[in-house]
Amino acid sequence: MGISIASFLLPLALVLNLVSVCNGGTTSAFVRNVQKGVNMSLDSDVFAVPSGYNAPQQVHITQGDLVGKEVIVSWVTEDEPGSIAVRYWSTDNSKQKKLAKGKIVTYRFFNYSSGFIHHTTIRNLEYNTKYYYEVGLGNTTRQFWFITPPEIGPDVPYTFGLIGDLGQSFDSNRTLSHYELNPRKGQTVLFVGDLSYSDNFPNHDNVRWDTWGRFVERSTAYQPWIWTVGNHEIDFAPEIGETKPFKPYSHRYHTPYKASQSTSPFWYSIRRASAHIIVLASYSGYGKYTPQYQWLEQELPKVNRTETPWLIVLMHSPWYNSNNQHYMEGETMRVMYEPWFVKYKVDVVYAGHVHAYERTERVSNIAYNVVNGICTPIKDQSAPVYITIGDGGNLGGMETNMTEPQPEYSAFREASFGHAIFDIKNRTHAHYSWHRNQDGYSVEADSHWFFNRFWHPVDDSTAHVFH
Ligand SMILES: *[C@@H]1O[C@H](CO)[C@@H](O)[C@H](O)[C@H]1NC(C)=O
Ligand SMILES: *[C@@H]1O[C@H](CO)[C@@H](O)[C@H](O)[C@H]1NC(C)=O
Ligand SMILES: *[C@@H]1O[C@H](CO)[C@@H](O)[C@H](O)[C@H]1NC(C)=O
Ligand SMILES: *[C@@H]1O[C@H](CO)[C@@H](O)[C@H](O)[C@H]1NC(C)=O
Ligand SMILES: *[C@@H]1O[C@H](CO)[C@@H](O)[C@H](O)[C@H]1NC(C)=O
Ligand SMILES: *[C@@H]1O[C@H](CO)[C@@H](O)[C@H](O)[C@H]1NC(C)=O
Ligand SMILES: *[C@@H]1O[C@H](CO)[C@@H](O)[C@H](O)[C@H]1NC(C)=O
Ligand SMILES: [Fe+2]
């Protein structure tokens, strides 16, 4: 008979998710396809330009203030500037439609000229309310909606999605689809950097920024994505005369940095529901006396755990990561800021950059001072858990080469594409899960109950014994 053993065993291996236990935590032995990612071609369905004269495209929203009562709506028009207004109304009050007006920016990059990039902030929104909004008034008008967060409070449940290093390959599309269909229903995406990977194309082909904007619109137009800057946003290309870092990114993706007294769009904070979220910039100065250092030094004491128990930090380059790819690239920033993270009891740090998934134990390494030589990560209940979620899809494929043996601080690691969900239940508990693209939508390939470091600082490690 024709049924080969191989065709029988392969699906079995995919289902079983065998794991092997090493010195550290778990290195998953999940069997996957490790081919290089394949770009979605320019004529892909996800890149289709919306029809109609001057139709708004690449619509995306993000939080516009410190507390979640403002939304920045951004979109691009190609034929002419078009209306700068957003019309919006709440479902409770649909007769009273309001207008908010913003501004338009454009930029050139080598021989590319951008469309008209609109940014309009809608203010004074009610909490916990569904709003409809329209852009493209006067020509092709498109309608979307979003739901504002609940008022800030210590026990407000809220669900954040975590996506990093998304790119525009077929894997990227799978990650986004899995996020959208996850029954845990992320309400806001915390995006940890590396958006379009346009810089991988000839002359950083900025057309790929536009295709990326159209690709993610199906999510970014309906829920805020909180942006972190990654190395693929630098777009530094002196060989073609482009010497101003972050030019495409900073024209296209705005952040509410002034609301948290930041002087740069690349580092800032927001408060949303029961979380205080600090976004750091791995590719801007962070040494002592730099603007980012001074800002963070003043920011951390402002976190009020009575109002926002959950302290979350986002950055692109991970501090703790046992993949050989990008190994120790985050080390210099770790040396600068880790003592603060321990002092202020950060609950969790999310990073991207490494195209694989990893979760650590609560660990710190802050004793070292050159003279004493004490440089070993130790178990520390005041320290955050570090999660690397740079497995959104990108273009380069998976990064499977890990340091061996698995370090003790590493609780779980696996080179597969996916996304994660941080599901805050109340001031003491949050349920975290990682979802790999090959699984069903509700499967949790890794999961963890977080106990809040301020309200319930009990040891929440489960994976393995860590000394
Ligand atoms: C930009 O230059 C590249 C390389 O010379 C060329 O292939 C491309 O068509 C040009 N694009 C535009 C918009 O002129
Ligand atoms: C686009 O809208 C403007 C302002 O309403 C109007 O003057 C113009 O005729 C419209 N263009 C087209 C092609 O519909
Ligand atoms: C991307 O995913 C969506 C939703 O699953 C699907 O409809 C679409 O055909 C996919 N496109 C590509 C190019 O994979
Ligand atoms: C995707 O496109 C980039 C830029 O053209 C190229 O370097 C890369 O090889 C492509 N990857 C695949 C798998 O086609
Ligand atoms: C923190 O928030 C609580 C509740 O709103 C308030 O009573 C307290 O004064 C705040 N603490 C600081 C240091 O601002
Ligand atoms: C894995 O990474 C190590 C350290 O960078 C390198 O020496 C080794 O050649 C890599 N192995 C493979 C199979 O790429
Ligand atoms: C907080 O949430 C956890 C998990 O759902 C639950 O077990 C616990 O009882 C909740 N605490 C309170 C005070 O409701
Ligand atoms: Fe990166």
From TrEMBL:
Residues 159-357 form the Calcineurin-like phosphoesterase domain. Coiled coil: none annotated. InterPro entries: Calcineurin-like_PHP (IPR004843), Metallo-depent_PP-like (IPR029052), MPP_PAP (IPR041792), PAPs-like (IPR039331), PAPs_C (IPR025733), PAPs_N (IPR015914), Purple_acid_Pase-like_N (IPR008963). Transmembrane segments: none annotated. Its cofactor is Zn(2+); Fe cation. Residues 56-148 form the Purple acid phosphatase N-terminal domain. Its EC number is 3.1.3.2. Gene3D superfamilies: 3.60.21.10, Purple acid phosphatase-like, N-terminal (2.60.40.380). It holds the Pfam family Metallophos. One of its GO terms (biological process) is cellular response to phosphate starvation. This is Purple acid phosphatase. It comes from Medicago truncatula (Barrel medic). The gene is 25485616.
